Amino acid sequence: MQSSYATKLIDLIESKAENIAKQWAADVMKHNRTPSYHSLPKDLVIEQGINFYRLFRQMSLADVPYEEAKNFSWKYAEEFYQQKIPLHEALYALILMRRHLWLYAEFQGIFMTALEKQQAVESLNRTILMFDYVSYQVTEKYQELTTEAVNGKLGIVKTFLIGKLIGGTKSIYKTGLMLILLIAACALTYYYHSTGTACLFTHLFYIPIILAAIWWGKKGIVVSIFLAALILVSHALFLNEVPFSDDIVRAIMFIVIGGVIGWLMESLKKLEGLYEPFT
Length: 279
Fold this sequence. Notes:
mainly alpha; 10 helices; Globin-like
């Protein structure tokens, strides 16, 4: 059973929800720890406060307050996430919301006797518990919304490059395919250099270079170095009369492109690792 003090507190909060919400809004919209709230429409902030304070009775009387709290928490998180309010500011706004609840109750002098002050401890503990529920759920929802936003922005890039499709292929298949591509590169190099045929066949080398960087990150630069060495050695063996300059530039580009893509892939994989536990 709830104490008479608890009932009195709930009745006060419900009947004076708008007054408490206005005091909270005035505070949160000028507080130095919640700067993102300063530019929000005042009516929007007040409405958030009213919604919570009016939900207070439902949370207090609910058999499972945690589930009841979601009615407010998720909406609160979604609305302020859309307003680009940082999570730490949203949580501090909840702290201010709790503070104003108790400041208003104390100002109204609803706990007058020693007995009521003793009973207030129980209500205080329950109030703190409900705010803890809301804080946890808001954090959880923020994380969910952030993860969805990251996944949405990366889109097919994340799916393809990070490894859900290609990266998920078994290592033996990737190694086998790479060997086939490198053998093909050796065959093409030998054919065109030995016959002296002018052909931009080296553009095809970017296929194994890019795949190696996607699959193995920075380690994939080994493929770039191999192909760079291949065209330089082949040029020295078969194209003595042709200037080295063009193939030197190609060799350098192979290594640069393989290194850059490999570095980018390492960064993307680290980013995925940050959000993987929440997906």
